[in-house]
Amino acid sequence: MCAAGLWRWRSAKAAQADFKAVKRSLQSMPRKERTDMTVLKTKPLFNPQGDTDKNSRRMIGGNTTNLNDFNNMKYTWASSWYRQAMNNFWIPEEINLSTDVKDYQMLSGPERDAFDKILSFLVFLDSIQTANLPCIGQYITANEVNLCLTIQGFQEAVHSQSYSYMLDSICSPVERDRILYQWKEDSHLLQRNTFIGDLYNEFQEKKDDVTLLRVMMANYILEGIYFYSGFMFFYNLGRNGKMPGSVQEIRYINRDENTHLWLFRNMITELKKEEPGLFTRENVSMMEEMLREGVRQEIQWGCYVIGDEVPGLTKDMVTSYIRYLGNLRWTSLGFEPLYPGSEKEPESMAWVNQYSNANMVKTDFFEAKSTAYAKSAAIIDDL
User: Which CATH number fits domain 107-369: 3.30.420.10, 1.10.620.20, 3.40.190.10, 1.20.81.30?
Assistant: First the structure.
């Protein structure tokens, strides 16, 4: 067995062990006893006895009429979020990928492997988000927040459309299918998908307030941690003059994900105000452990898929940036930093923010659509 093959064999064995460890970690995360949980009821679609006073509205457990009244919102931030998200509309196929078709064939071996695996993972994340959001919406009794979740679900579908367009443009149907289903063969990918997937499946079986909090936290981790090794990889290609169309697709996706992150941050903080008894020491510890696990997995994934072989990125750069993001996400929920020494953005990664700005770099797409997209903007990733 050659050295590269031996490394991959050992890496796969290690991933299998990590996969089992993740399952144990999920089962051992601190949780309240069942007797302390409040079972949630699916809200009725037609409810003539629902509250019409916006001040009676609640994130969960409210008595909603399901009437979408844009002039009377309790959660006024939802109106701003909704309009921002609507203004951010974009069409994947209007971004020119002709250069990418040539560039993809010229990528180095490590770059191409990373491109394929990262795209496979991103496809999974946005696909499972599209399916999961309606499940959460059934128990959110603030109709203006449900409007936001509906727009998010639409945007996740656009992201899946974008990945399909990218794959259809740069590779054959056989190669496309191989990339899409790599998680069935790559134990690292399976491990990553399992962590979030199991948390989402849990809410299918246990409809209570603590499990809802867990699935909301899982969404927050997905939007705020899980995408970022992939994003930094694409932006690194961009700063090296490679795959410009794909990089532009990712910029738009990144902009949308920032709004999704902001939405779930607000949902969690509103829930904290309305249901303070839900945020016990045990449940906050559970949330912290979930975030730590998400950070650990994202670092491990980044080191596996990017490593030190992709020009312009190293394992140390991945690790320092993801720890910084972990602190940013946790402090945005009102808690203290988790990783001492990682409170500030690493200087070596300052270029990530520059490349993530969807409105900074001119392409054929912007030159053709500058007027239509002039009103769109980004919610800055400061969470």
Answer: 1.10.620.20
